[in-house]
Amino acid sequence: MFRAYLLSLNESQALFALNSQEYLQVDPEKSIRGSVDSKHGPELEFHGAVERKEGLQIRGQYFYTVAVRFLDRLDLSDRLLATTLSLD
How many domains does the chain contain in total? Predict the structure, then answer.
């Protein structure tokens, strides 16, 4: 299990930024389980599939990104604070 930076999120998918070591652990053939910490309640659990892995360069900085499509839609009514991912 490791923490990832949440770059974008909607009810059905998310884009995460990872460091290079964590990026190498993500296998597109496996599913991903994770949780989203919310401001006013328990963590929102999700289960999804890796859609793509790629590098992203912004202002000379290189980031490793992973796009995840959720198997079930999430209720995003609370403000999100942090995201934790774990690999199945």
Answer: 1
Rounded mean pLDDT, 50-64: 87
Neighbours of 4 (CB within 10 A): 24
CB atoms within 10 A of CB 65: 18
Instruction: Read off the pLDDT of each residue in 59-86 and give the average, rounded to a whole number.
Output: 76
Q: Which domain holds residue 54?
A: 2-87
Q: For 69, what's the count of Cα atoms within 13 Å in the CB-facing half-sphere?
A: 5
**C-alpha distance from residue 62 to each of 15, 19, 33, 56, 58 (Å):** 15, 10, 25, 6, 6
Q: Please name every residue paired with 38 in a beta bridge, in sequence order, or none if there are none.
A: 80
Mean pLDDT of the chain: 80
